[in-house]
Amino acid sequence: MDWSLLRHPALIRALQGSPLYAALASAMQGLILGGELLPGDRLPPERLMAERLGISRSTVVAAYARLAEAGWVNARQGQGTTVSAGPPGHVAASKRAVRLGNPALRREGSGDPAWVDFALATAVPELAWLQPSAQAASLVLRESAYQPEGMLPLRERIAARYSRQGLPTMPAQVLVCAGAQQAISLLAQHFLQRGDRVLLESPNYFGALDVFRSAGAILDELPVQARAAHAPAFSAALAGGRHKLAYVCPSLHNPCGISWSRSASERLARTAAQGSGLLLVDDSLAELHFAQTPAPLPVPRGAPIVHIGSLSKTLWAGLRIGWLRAPEPLIEALRRAKASADIACSALSSALACDLLDRYDALLAPRREQLQSQAELLLDGLHRLLPQWRVQRPEGGLFLWAELPPRGPDAEAWVEAAAAQRVKLTPGSAMSAHAGFQRHLRLAFTQPAAQALEGLSRLAAIAEEGPTPSSPGMQPDQTGAARGPTSPATRAR
């Protein structure tokens, strides 16, 4: 059999990663996602791969086990290890839940203007944003070295913004990434091993859940609550010392659109400073708060706290620029991990990001106003057309978190029925580590007004006929966390 795969550059680069088995597993995931390994393809025998790569067989065994546990491959005694026939999912999730889970992996209607997409939040930038200034052009031309950590002028601007917001930051504490998703993935790859425990809010961002599952982590969820009410439970769990990593969105939560109070955030920071685990703070939506000026979670001296930010969420999804802000020793380790998979950031994207950050406040003000108007329009439309749905009024961000009536079809039945009418929805189960929130939907409110109203009209027509559930979705949600946030909600009626 041809084992030319063993000479693939991605596997060779993985030998520089740490821990080695995790880097090797991540490299093979990349080959599967890139189509270089197809469903049914057999992976090289463990002994052969170990010999060709010059590593121990136990490292290969651990990498294959990581891939199998996350669902990327199937291992059968006497038949070897083969690539799975479908995308990986949580071992307890049904095939239907996996298929409907991460909306970024669903291709129906992609690019078709006849579809209304409430599943993914996208923003179309102004044409003027995409015309780099002379200064940006100069930055591109001067960028001659590979810089896995990101272009220095860009890191300087990110650091300066953190400092102005009350969190003193040096450029050496910033690592530029291909969006917030890569930032989360780098942290998980470097910091987590199979069996480590991760503490997070529930519901939560599906991209983070996917990363932590792929790392083989055990996910412990606490229900989201607004403002100071949430801090004691989360801080107490973090203080218990059982978790290698905690992931939290205190500035503006995805998907609930709520935030913590300043005192609650400070309490969490003090707790993190006293523990041994890493606190990962995702501020990707923080700049889109409708009323508050963002203030990053404080970092007591020496505290193991990492912040994540992104331009992809605030201005333009097509600009894959995100970042990590972390203690310098951790940044250097992450820089090495990033270099094994992404040796340099795009100079053109980085220069454009410098331009945008120089005008950031001026660009964000109308962006927030537009999003608030779109949120109000969608809320009003739901009130008129789907009055039995319970919907939270968000403090900002990109999404509404809607709860379906206690009787009737569940969220996944709604997703399927809506797809038949060319409407994309995200079921709440995609935002849960343990298949909760089966009576919730996440609705993006980033569409133009006419398109959003057309989508609601199609959903209202489905409601009149009643979507036909194809799973046991007719009963009220019985999962404990699935009742959702306890902050005030508005019942549309």
From TrEMBL:
**UniProt entry tagged with the keyword Oxidoreductase:** no
List keywords of the entry alphabetically. Answer: Aminotransferase, DNA-binding, Pyridoxal phosphate, Transcription, Transcription regulation, Transferase
MF terms per GO, please?
Answer: transaminase activity
HTH gntR-type domain span? 18-86
Q: Which domain of life is it from?
A: Bacteria
Q: Name one Pfam family in it.
A: Aminotran_1_2
Would I find Lipid metabolism among this entry's keywords?
no
SMART domains given for it?
A: HTH_GNTR
- Gene3D superfamilies, A to Z: Aspartate Aminotransferase, domain 1, Type I PLP-dependent aspartate aminotransferase-like (Major domain), Winged helix-like DNA-binding domain superfamily/Winged helix DNA-binding domain
Question: Region (Disordered): which ranges?
Answer: 461-493
Instruction: Give the record's family classification.
Output: In the C-terminal section; belongs to the class-I pyridoxal-phosphate-dependent aminotransferase family.
Question: This protein is called what?
Answer: PLP-dependent aminotransferase family protein
